Amino acid sequence: MFDKKPILSNFGELISMNYKRNNFMTVPARVKIKKLLASEATEQQTNVKGWVRTKRGGKPVFFIALNDGSTINNIQIVADPELISENTIKDITTGAAISVIGKVVASQGAGQSVEIVAEQIEILGKADPEKYPLQPKKHSMEFMREKAHLRMRSSTFSAVFRIRHSLAFAIHQFFHEKGFYNLHTPIITANDAEGAGETFHVTNFDLDKIPMTDEGKVDYKQDFFGKETNLTVSGQLEGELSAMALGEIYTFGPTFRAENSNTTRHLAEFWMVEPEMAFYDLNDNMNLAEEMLKYVVKYALENCKEDLDFLAKRADDEDKQKPQNERQELGLLERLQFILENDFEKVSYTDAIEILRNSKPNKKKKFNYIIEGWGADLQSEHERFLVEKHFKKPVILFDYPKDIKAFYMRQNDDDKTVGAMDILFPGIGEIVGGSQREERLDKLTQRMKEMDIPEDELWWYLDTRKFGTAPHSGFGLGFERLMLFVTGMGNIRDVIPFPRTPDNAEF
């Protein structure tokens, strides 16, 4: 079908010439590399498009590793310099986008079943090797964060973000199968669900000409919404309203915290999964969260095998560079299986405090935060000790002191604790936080007064306790925390495409 002479670098000109000569030319439809590598069919003509990872060789042939993002694996293109023009060969550099038409043949090398013998190559987009930053060598994670607009072309980050898609899909599928309704809660809101005050303000004011009241305060009545507003820290409160009508709902969207934390566990913009369920008590809530986490981890193991294998090897290599006492006891795939094979241990906060207070790390003052007694706010080191050292399985802590928890959590009869729960994972610590919500109007308003939360700002929330109140529960899953666990990445900035952190809102 094709002449065995140098192919014109201008593909459009080639098509035009063939069309004029034959009045017709069939160009094979593009096939994704993932599909091609999964097929054992050979001797068929195909068309693949992607980005060049590497090019090596010369005469009599050269080899191109091509990737289109559909899989962690590259497909090898075998090209004869006598068939491909010199100008085209020169422009086949790492990062360049190309289209290849050729024949699928059984691969002569190890690692893949098929390869493509090129008959035509078109350069879709050049990548100057003197300027393209992602050359085939090892780059630091910090360097890759600075190149977040390109880092998804690397093997590590393409694997991470394919898994991110799969986990998001699995979460939607889990709740859909259980009859939940997906609710889109507002991103702009006038409430601070957590009461922490760490919100990003939203305004339409010219910041050089902010209108003030006679008392010298900002006159929000002149702002776009006529009141003070902010980016949401949680969709929970709106989710509760919906659960009290639809029964079982979940939200899955971005949330924001103006918390000046430069750590490997904090982001200013992150995604939350927040189900809310009418007629669920705390135990129902804990069981649902455990079921969801196991479902999602199982889905990843069954559907992201190649990406997980790659990331598991990467995690093992990184672990070997750490001091012995900082290394993971289990590999990435073993940690995922660990979640599936173990029932989560349910432990009251009170019992957990006793375990921690009497532990060797606490007695020998190895903890950074020493546990003195009941009422302490547990830190990541305490949570990981309970999971990894003491129980050696995932842990659900429940019935926390009310003084360290939010106003909306149901107060227990002891008047000291609330029906809250946290799920703790190995290597991560807290991954889920939730509670049975306070459905009793008098108890809720009393707690709001104690915490200086104005009732008039949440009148709509209190209405659900006035009209048809019922027991209900819910929890929040930090999606990026789940991503850290499933991918084995060490920094939360590496599991979200474009991280938003203090002094960083690039791209």
Automatic annotation (TrEMBL):
Catalytic activity as recorded in UniProt: tRNA(Asn) + L-asparagine + ATP = L-asparaginyl-tRNA(Asn) + AMP + diphosphate + H(+)
UniProt GO BP: asparaginyl-tRNA aminoacylation
Major subcellular site: cytoplasm
Top-level EC class: ligase
One term of GO molecular function: asparagine-tRNA ligase activity
Gene Ontology CC: cytoplasm
Residue ranges annotated for the Aminoacyl-transfer RNA synthetases class-II family profile domain, each copy included: 161-497
Summary of subunit composition and partner proteins: Homodimer.
The protein's name in its UniProt record: Asparagine--tRNA ligase
Lineage, opening ranks: Bacteria, Pseudomonadati, Bacteroidota, Cytophagia, Cytophagales
Gene that specifies this protein: asnS
